Amino acid sequence: MNKMRTRIQKFMIGRYGIDKLSTYLLYGGLAVVVLFNLLNWEIVGLLGWAAIILGYYRTFSHNRTKRYQENQKFLTFTRQLVRKWNNTRNKFYQRKVYKYYSCPNCKKELRVPRNKGKINITCPHCHERFIKKT
After folding, report:
1. Is the full-model pTM beyond 0.90?
2. 42-74 burial, b for 16+ CB within 10 Å, e for fewer?
């Protein structure tokens, strides 16, 4: 057991290894292969195999800087998606308490309390004043 571990460690010296993008490619590819083979859509299942092969290619690659940059772009993209999802979810949960308006001058989104009648809103970014019904 220890001998096998040493061989694997020697093999992986100088290689990039597993990261988030490789993990997503491997698991996502496996899910696509299983799902579309159950549906008898073998051609679409080939995309899953391509993702798995790309995941292993990234794992065993010697070009560490290129793989690192790819992973950073992937992490930035997923962070933006998660942030947008969280903002949308928060707006949905707060829809009964707050109303959202866009500033007519700078187009920033503003949150104001509901059921206060007509109120004078001042944008904190550009200090534009406008009146809206809540």
Report:
1. no
2. eeebeebeebbeebeebbebeeeeebeebbeeb
